[in-house]
User: What shape does this take?
Amino acid sequence: MKTPVETIKHSQSGLPATKAEAATGREERPQGTQTLLRGLALLELVAQGITDVKGIAAQLGTPRSTTHRMLSSLVSEGYLHHIPYQGYSLGFRLIYLGTKAQEQRPLGALARPFLEELAAQTGDTVHLGTVEGTQVFYLEKVPGTKGLEMRSRAGQRMPLASTGVGKALMLGFSPAGWGELYDEAVAIKLEAGERSLLSPWPQYEAAMQQYRAQGWVMDLEENELGIRCVGAPIRDVSGKVVAAVSNASAVPYMPKERMLELGPVVLAAANKISEALGMEKTNA
Assistant: This one.
């Protein structure tokens, strides 16, 4: 999909030419449409850091006087803010609209098509989770096609440090806080009379550093014996980790070699959800 800036550059009206327009070489689109698209393109330019009248006019291909009138209108309506001798910045109305847009697009509903696509692609069970205190809260679970049962379910909470979704969420934390989350996960197991499945802390920390560098994580039966998974973080428009997705299956279907192949696949699915949340498109 073209941005308003790309659309303006493609066509002064911003819309495909009609047959009549193509035949005559003239465009006859309503002036209001052209003005609207130029206004949207202008906002995108300011968001990209082009904040002076000269630069904006050059990008839009409009006279400085016309550009100045558009800028003044957007400032008066709160969509832009003007700082004398410094230029223009995005205004409070855009912050308000951005907040409302996030409220109107629930994460689970937005992510569901991508989760189903990943489950269909891999044949494995796919999870979506968010941080709740020191635990992961499972928002969605899409069963795979292998007929496997695992104890995870939507609405369940588990320790961050011992799950694939949780470890992916931890990539958004400062590494200085990983140790506390690790200790809590071990303590929860011990209090339940179970043996911790986590590797010793030095090995765990080294693995997390590697995961942080590559952008996705592995759960090597650290939460449930016989179950392995690959997870990746989901980021919002600011780049903050707000959720995570994981792809899980039984050990016979999840040898280490396949997990290494799945890592970029799961990361790509997470990035699609991130982009739907407004994060800038990534080449990963």
